Amino acid sequence: MSGLNVAILTAATLAASLVATYVVMRMLSYRAILDHPNARSSHSEPTPRGGGLAVVPILIVAWLVAIPLGAAPEVTIICAIAAAALAALSWMDDLSGLSPQVRLAGHTVAIATALTTLPTGFNPFTGLVPWPGDLIITTLAWLWFVNLFNFMDGIDGIAATETITIGAGGALVVSINGSDEGLVPLGLTAAAAALGFLWWNRPPARVFLGDVGSVPLGFLLGGFLLFLANKGHWTAAFILPLYYIADATLTIFGRSMRGERIWQAHRLHAYQLAVDAGRSHGAVICRIAMVNVLLIALAVLSTIDPVWAMPSLACAAIAVGVVLLWMRHPPGHNSPTAP
């Protein structure tokens, strides 16, 4: 796929996401499908919920268009179908609520379906773990990523910012290394779809993704990161989403250690504690964006030469740790609920 075609597809995805999100936002407002403020939310005004109805279909179409142009693996078809099914399931959850067991079963079936269609030799951990251990870890990692992506979508602009980071960062990694040009349009269109949505979701947000957006996006991005790891860039695939992974994992671990029901809604993620301490959504997202830019640079560095892999990972962990400390321990504020 030529650079011009990639640019056209990316621009078209951005424009479609920008327009479609506005249309869906108006539709949701008209039908009063709103997220009302409560004790666990971070907004103060009823806000349309379901922006994923625009973002996800546009991204799915963009990925499918890339296949006949020779710019995406054919397994993308199965991933797209599975993402559409997850969007339908998650929309039901947005409207009426589903049990955690039903949601988890749906996520598991989607991931298992995608993994059974992957070509022989798919090995994201590049021999570090023998098969079938690699398959088991891949399944659990993908399942966790889908759920943490959903858990972390709690303030204005955060999910879109993370999607842009993973999509653009992953595309940059494979472009510089020339390892698989087919991943470039997948990453760039994901970033473009998120950027179009971000225009309406930036603080103060006029629309939220909803589970219909965050769950299938987490599924598609998780698959994208696994494709990246399968090309030998597993360090980069871990570094790019490291802020999300760290915040979600540490918070869930802390809650589980206290005997809390980890599937129930809460306000204990680091970014939520920062907002509760008086920091604005914009200030928190700015810090996340800043560390994510650094993570992209470190992800690229980790793939240039194997000698840089571990130092890059260590620097990424330190950078994320600093941001988490800034969020969890603002000057002059003691949070008794912070894990």
Quick gist of this model?
By secondary structure, this protein is mostly helical. It is 68% helix and 1% strand.
Which descriptors apply to this entry?
339 residues; mainly alpha; two-stranded antiparallel sheet; 13 helices; 2 strands; 68% helix; 1% strand; globular; disordered C terminus
Write the layout of secondary structure elements.
Blueprint: H1 3-30, E1 34-35, E2 47-48, H2 52-66, H3 76-96, H4 100-116, H5 133-151, H6 158-177, H7 183-201, H8 211-230, H9 234-239, H10 242-257, H11 270-276, H12 281-304, H13 309-328
Antiparallel strand pairs: 1-2
Walkthrough of the structure:
The chain is mainly alpha-helical and 339 residues long. It is 68% helix and 1% strand. It has a domain at 3-232. A two-stranded antiparallel ribbon has the order 1-2.
- Give the strand line-up of the largest sheet: 1-2
Sequence of secondary-structure elements? HEEHHHHHHHHHHHH
**Portion in strands:** under 5%
What's the story with the biggest beta sheet?
2 strands, antiparallel
**CA radius of gyration:** 19 Å
Separation of the first and last Cα atoms: 48 Å
Would you tell me the structural class of the helices and strands? mainly alpha
Shape: globular
The counted number of beta strands is: 2
* Percent helix range: 55-70%
How many H/I helices? Answer: 13
Q: Name the average pLDDT.
A: 90
Q: Please, what is the oligomeric state?
A: single chain
